Amino acid sequence: MASENRRLHSGNLLQGGFTLIEMMVVIVIIAACAAIVIPRLPAPEATRLRSSARNLATAIRFMNDQAIITKGQYTLQLSLTENSTQISKLSASGEELPPDDQFMNHRLVEEGISIEDVTVPQLGRVSEGEVVIPFGPGGNQDGITIHLKGGEKHLTIIAYPSGGKVKVLEGYQEAAS
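Above: the chain's sequence. Below: its structure in token form.
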């Protein structure tokens, strides 16, 4: 009886494990799946570029709407040197105040993304320094084209005048007249 129990016990151990070949096959399948999926994942830089473009486009739409709804004045300051943005609400006396809405206080252009240039009718194409874009009671009165760059990729943000329409386009593109 004791020898029979030993044989059953030993037989259970052999049936319960994986062979080395089975484990190697599983590892090869996982490696093949990873080799297919990983190159298709977006690069972190491309994700930051797309996020920055969406943030900036949303801020432009929001400021345009806020200016129209509140009959107020807002400015969007784009620093091409520091790759930063600042939104201000102008008081009746012309004093710059922080915007009422928390959304407008967030960082719009993420770290590692550059504002390559901005085109507005009053200034033409500006590729260094600072650009201040006004939003009055009628919203954005001029077309705006902003080019963002992250690594080798470009995205273009085009804000059309007097309608609040803002597009984000792939690549470095010019606004159609």
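Residues 26 and 32 are 10 Å apart (CA to CA).
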